[in-house]
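User: Okay, second chain of the day. Same drill as before: sequence in, C-alpha cells out.
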Amino acid sequence: MGVDCGFDIYPPLEPTRANRERYEHFLREVLATYGPRDGGDADRGGDGDGGSVVRVDPESEGSYIHFEVGEDPLIPRRCEHFLRFSSKISGRSAAEPYIRGVCKIARQWLGDRVHFWHDMNESGASIRRSGCYNWNEISAARRRIGEHRQEAEERDREETQMQDELHQASDATDRVDKPYAIRPITGKGQGFVATSKIPKGTRILLEVPLFKMPGSAEDIGSAESIVLREVKSLTKDQQRAFLALRNVQGRKCTPLLGIVITNILPLGGSDSGGLFLEASRINHSCQPNTQHTWNGDLGHLTVHALRDIEAGREITISYISGVSLGHAERQHHLMDGFSFTCACELCSLPPLARAASDRRLGQIRSINEDEDAAIDLDQVLERPAESFRQVRRLFELLEEEGICDIRIARACFNACQIAIVVGDKARASVFAERGYAARRLLTGDDNPTTVMFKRLAKRPAEHDLYGKNMKCYDDSWEAPRGISAEELENWLWNTDGWWVF
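Assistant: Same drill. C-alpha cells below.
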C-alpha cells in the first residue's frame, strides 16, 4: 500500500479578505520557490532529479499549482478549497522533499492551521497519522472543487453569451454618430462636448467597464496587486488609453492605482467600482446636466441628459451624485478626492445666493439623506401625515434649488412608500408613476429600478408594507380623473382621510 506523507489545513480557511490575502502570499512564495524561472522548468525540491516537476494552470480552480511527483499533489486556487497537500513517498517517489518544503512555506503564511503528518511515525498529539481528515472527507472536498469549476464554467458561458449580445448592441450603437466629442476644456483637461442638441432624457453613453475593482481590497498593497493584474490583461491600445487618464494621487500609491482611484465610478449599491475609458473624460459640475447610473442588468454604465443640452455645451456629471452638500463641504470633498476647486455655476453664486442655497441643501439632507430622516418606518407608522408633509417640503426645496437628478426619483419613492404603508393605493400609484417617469428619464426603460417603479405603479397593494397596521381606503380607491393639474396637486397632498385602526 505504501507510505503517505503530507500536511492538512485545519480548521479550513474561511474565504475572508485576510485569509485570501495570506493565501495569495503563500501561493506566490510556492511559485517563487518551485516554479519555472526565465521561461524554463525547474526542480528545487532538494532531492529531485532536476527535471520539470511543477506545472501552473492559472485558469484552473482545482489544480492551480501541480507538482508532478509521487501522486501529483496539487494546490487549488481558492483558499477555502485547500485541505490537504500529500502523496505516497515510499519506493521511488521523490515527493517528500517537496511536501516538507511546501509545508514550511504554508506554516509561514497560514500559521497553526498547518498540521504535518506521516504514516510511519510523525504526528501531533491531536493529529492522526493519516492527518486531520479521513479520505472520504478529502474526496468530498475534491468533488466540491469540481462542482465549483462546473458552476464557474456555466457562468462563463452565460457571461460570454451576454457579452456577445451586448457587443452586437454596441456595434449597432457605434454605427450611429455619437452626440458628443472629447475635446480640451480650458482649465479641465479633456471633456465631453455636445456636437448637436441633445434632448432631455437622451441616453448619451452606454459603456462597459474596462475592468472592475472589488470593494474588498483590504489595503493599498492588495489593491495595487489587483490593478496591476487587470492592467496586464488589457490590450496594448487599452493600456495606452488607461495610462492617458488623469492621476491626482501623487505618491500616495502606485501610478496605476492612482489612475483608478481618480477615475473609478461606483457600480450601484455595491462596494465595487468600475473603470470606464469614455466616462472618465466627463468632468464634474455640482449642477450637472446628465445623470450617470450603473445598470446591473446590462452590466453597463449609462449617462442620460437631465435637461436639453445645446450644441457646443460641455456635458457634465456630478462626482458627488445624489448627496446634498453645502458649498464648503463640496469644495473640501472635491479638493480632497480630486485635487481641484470647483467653479461651476452653483459654486460661483454670489455670497447671499450661495448662503440661501446652502440652507436649502441642508434641509434637503435632513429630510432625505441623513440618518433618522423623514422616511423612517416607525415615524411613518406613528405620524404618517407629518412624514408626508416633510416629503412635500422636500419636493419644494428640490424645485427651488433647481435639482432634477436622482433625488427627484428618490423623493417620489419616499412619498409612494408612505402612501403604501397607510394603505392609500391611489396616491401610491400616482407617486410610483411619477417615480417611473423620473427614473425613465434618468436611467432608461431597461434599468431595474425603473422596471420596479413601473410594476409598483400598476400594483401598489402587492408591496410588502401595504396597509401595515393601518388602512385609509379600500382597494377600489382610485385617483380622481378629469380635474386640473392644480386640483390634482391639492388632492394628492391632502391627508385628511388618513386614519389608524
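The longest helix spans residues 135-174.

User: Thanks, on to the next one.
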